[in-house]
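Handoff note, outgoing to incoming analyst
You'll be picking up this chain. Sequence as last confirmed:
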Amino acid sequence: MNRSKARELAFKLLYQIEVQKEINEEDIQLFFDNNEVNSIEAKEYINEMVNGINKYSKEILEQISKNLKEDWEIERVSKVNLSLLKLAIYEIIYKQLPYKVVINEVVELAKKYGEETSHSFINGILASVVKEV
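Most recent structure output, in case you need it:
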């Protein structure tokens, strides 16, 4: 399984966590089984994303909040967009992956799973984050 597919699965799991608000190891294993994730590397990557985002949740949410327009609150951000932003910010800041690759792939996921304007919204927030970092 390539990194792009693993990133998409990590997004789906993060979205599930956003909706359910809580998740345990059994839920994660069920997610792997339902999505036929058999690759050890993919499982490690997805677990690392979930655990890392959870560990730095406060800092990641602050990055999102401070880059929203003045009249926007983080509660207004859709769960799809929030999941994608968390994933991208974690990979850019904490994993120090090339921001162009991360942003490109997350924007493509926003086009696939988000609303009509999700891709431009996410691109704008991430561009601001990259300028600060």
